[in-house]
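So, can you check these tokens?
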Amino acid sequence: MANARTQFDYLASYLQRRDERVRLGRIAMHHGLLFEHHPFVILYRNSVAFRVAGRALTQALALPGSTGFDPLKPDEPPPGKPGWVLVPAAHWAAWNRLAIDSMHCLQRAQDHHVSWQVPPPPPEPAPTPPPSTPKSLAERVAAIMKSGFSFGLAKSDH
């Protein structure tokens, strides 16, 4: 595997060819990429930070060794600035997808509100009821009948 800078340069070249709005720049004294003047990828030491939201943020933070990141205070411990995640070079294969997700998040943020916070976990699933047996089904039907459940047939003109 090449070093993080080589992988970052390759990623930058690819993204600049893909979209003319992507530019190389300096963000808080570090090499980075800007999308329409907004930073979305930063090379920091042997890792790359991405600004992502939603599922992409959750997936990036799930990568072993990934942490929250603050571009203006990179040496401070996590949680960092909302939406920024620092992904180590061990996961360089995921960098392309994360960079594209980051561009999409910035595009979406131009027209809609985007929450850069980590989404809450999904609610716990409801407990599964025990399987029905003939006896339990008969007991439930009997309870319904006792509660005054009534039905009848309506006379039809047809």
User: Anything to note?
Assistant: DSSP finds four helices and six strands in the chain. The beta strands are 22-27, 30-35, 38-44, 47-51, 67-68, 84-88. The two ends are 80 Å apart (CA to CA).
